[in-house]
Amino acid sequence: MNLGKAIVELYKKTAISIPADVESSLKNSLKREKKSSLAYYTISNILKNIEVARDGSLPVCQDTGVPMFYVKVPVGVSHPRIRQSIVNATRKATKSIPLRPNAVNVLEERNTGDNIGFDKGKSEVQQPIIYIEQWGKSSIKIELMLKGGGSENIGTQYKLPDKKLKANRDLEGIKKCIIDAVFKAQGKGCSPYILGVAIGGSKDLVSMESKKQLLRKIDDVNEDEKLAKLEKWLKVKINSLGIGPLGLGGKVTVLGVKMKALHRHPASFFVDVSFMCWACRRGTLIYNRGDIKLS
Amino acid sequence: MPLSEEKIRKLKIGDKIELSGTIFTARDKAHLYLLESDELKEKLSNGIIYHCGPIVKKGVFGDKVIAAGPTTSERLSLYAPEVIKKYKIKAIIGKGGMDKRTLQAMKKYGCVYLAAIGGVGALIASSIKKVKNVYKKEFGMPEAIYELEIEDMALIVAMDSKGRSIYEDVLKDSEEAYRKLLGKQ
Question: ipTM of the predicted structure?
Fold first, then answer.
């Protein structure tokens, strides 16, 4: 199979299914809610929807999001050619699955209709969002995340110290920011959420890295012991807020919290929080000279 | 058949209902259009608005909705009170709830907010039987106004015409826990 076709397959798998770790986490959440509650009703319907989408090869959610590509290529593979393959595959997938066209020219207020956003000179691909880096292996690895607008809109950034939250430049301060972000969001971005958090860094880097955390599996354990502990603590405390699925009240507001620490300038201390909705659509393609592996 | 005010006034928060009939999708651009133009005045009067940007597939037998969950309603709070007043809207379907001004307009004009479950696009599409009309196609697929025929769409009454809101209750409860966690008085 050529790379373009493989990327269309990746799109399809990602749009119509929810990863096994997320589905099983949702199933576990159901056990925590009372049978008569709106939370139980909501999660039951979410699980039913996952089945309906998978069985009928339909998009899980109508918002098929902004496609985010995280690509690793061997030495010698042309980055512009990879971008072109992604652009072509996006056009095809938008028609064949179909995906909802989600690229709007901000100055002309015009939907481009094919999920592709170019700059005026047509040389820069602005949408989908594509990050490419080189790695030492001989295969190409493409991770795709379909990032919905509702969950994107509630993402937020803090600068420590924060007077209003009485948050200092320490772990306590970081915790306060993250809890505040979820409290302010309530259920608007389709809870239960998965949270991606990056701390330290520069303004752009924390933003990119917090979102990248959403590629991690729900049940993985952070290799940094301090962060692993913090992730666990935050999940329990945030769930004690009682916001619940879709903000209708309940015990499960987040399925997991994933964090990354970055070095910072002495003057800066950012805390960036990215949200993923329960309809967490992420997939991986390993492409090795025509052989493909989708997961 | 239009929902009667009497029926609407009887609904209370927490009720689970199944809705059948005609609804109109409307998001950001559509709300501005509905306020500026009177073109849909007759069609939408006493009607139902759905905050939704569906995926619609062209088929041999016309358009087919294949995924149609709700979008976040909060963005439309800015326009909702005026839209409710102008069109005497009887029900708004969405997710995440709307602000106090909208809640007051709902109380005054006899309107309810019905929560659809965010993200369950495929499941909701199965209750959409027909695309009856499309207006303002030039807004693009997510923002066009689709007139849809629905059957037994499962919804939760989340804001009622008595001025009560599940979201306000949840906010209040979560605020207590939030203040404790942040060490605020």
Answer: 0.95
